[in-house]
Amino acid sequence: MRSPEDELAELDAASLRRTLRPVDSPQQPESIIYQKEVTSFASNDYLGLATHPALRQAATEAIETWGTGSGASRLITGSLSPHRQLEEFIAKAKKTESAITFANGYTTSVGTLSALLEKGDTVILDKLSHASLVDGARLSGATVRVFPHNNLDKLERLLQSTSQSAEPNRRILIVTESVFSMDGDLAPLREIVALKEKYHALLLVDEAHALGIYGSHGMGLAEQLGCSSGIDFHMGTLGKSAGSAGGYIAGSKAFIDLIVNKARSFIYSTAAPPAQAAASLAALKLIQSGEGAALREKLWSNLRLFSELTDSPLPESAIIPWMVGDSQKALDLSNQLFDQHSILAPAVRYPTVPRNTARLRITITAAHSEKNITQLCEILNSLA
Ligand code: PMP
After folding, report:
1. Where in the chain is the domain with CATH 3.90.1150.10?
2. Is the CB of 279 under 6 A from ligand 1?
3. ipTM for the complex?
4. In this structure, which topology does domain 15-46+318-383 adopt according to CATH?
5. Which end of the chain has fewer beta carbons closer than 10 Å to its terminal beta carbon, N or C?
6. Which of 45, 109, 132 for a ligand 1 pocket mutation test, highest count of atoms within 8 Å of Cβ?
7. β-strand 202-206 against 233-237: which pairing, if any?
8. Are 306 and 320 in contact (CB under 8 A)?
9. Using one digit for the tens of pLDDT, what is the confidence trace for 152-178?
10. How buried is 351 (Cβ within 10 angstroms: 0-12 exposed, 13-18 middle, 19+ buried)?
11. 53-288 has which CATH code?
12. Pick from 27, 93, 28, 56: nearest CA to 279
């Protein structure tokens, strides 16, 4: 039997071993990591809400009222009002009939895809779709097809061949992210909506990295592009720009009811703590408010500053991949930034990204100061 030590040694040899860093500060740019003061460019807390007083207050009040735990799965102990209020808010914000939340985004994707699809159905994913979407697709038993990243011609060809061969009544589901988590680029959502309509397919869009950042109400890229109504399943996480935790899926009442009935990660898992739902609701309200719009503007002004100082195009999102290629070189660069410059810019390696495309994944947030961005850019420029 192979030992875990041997397996870990193999990961080490390929520069693919992961370790957990000890952090002794809240989610904010000024962090204490390995007992050292560093500036973090690693967090997906894009608006800086994870430490916002409104979220702290909502969570604290919910703990006072509801205690800490949810007791059991929602189908056993029922839906507490913080969960119901959050879901009603999400459905309204996404202009759908209904919405359901899970404890996190990963279990939302896995549960939703495996609830919606079964053997005989087809799921067509963008090649760079998040692991949770890939895992849900595989678990569902449906035929899994993959189109090269953002390649609309290939997507159309797959839709053509699938719709010709599929038996009537079979579901065909297109799956994409709106902002890709490791490349920070955007999906051509309007064009994908047009294709899904042409071929009578369904469409699920994961807005994990877009919520809070795009659209006049901060509801995501589909809101900004005006194509929300063409999306059947709006998916996202509350753990990134919403500064809390949880995942949501919004869609028609019948489909959401079906997910409640069939998603195993919903049915067989204890509901998220009520305080988590309360913090998420406070975050969504804030994202839609004038303060949310000001935080978005601050984020985009930080991104403009990054672009000016590094003489590079304006990033399309808050995620900036600094491409390296080789895993060890990416690790070395990340360690160099940490050890010599007190900057956390994590190396992202296979299997999170394809082989030989290791990179630093730099995230810029509204909580970074101009000084933080200037310091980062000076160092990056000195490396180039
Ligand atoms: N989808 C995407 C695109 C993600 O990047 C992530 C988180 N890495 C998830 C889903 C999962 O969300 P969560 O972290 O809430 O589990």
Report:
1. 15-46+318-383
2. no
3. 0.99
4. Aspartate Aminotransferase, domain 1 (3.90.1150)
5. N
6. 132
7. parallel
8. yes
9. 999 999 999 999 887 888 999 999 999
10. exposed
11. 3.40.640.10
12. 56
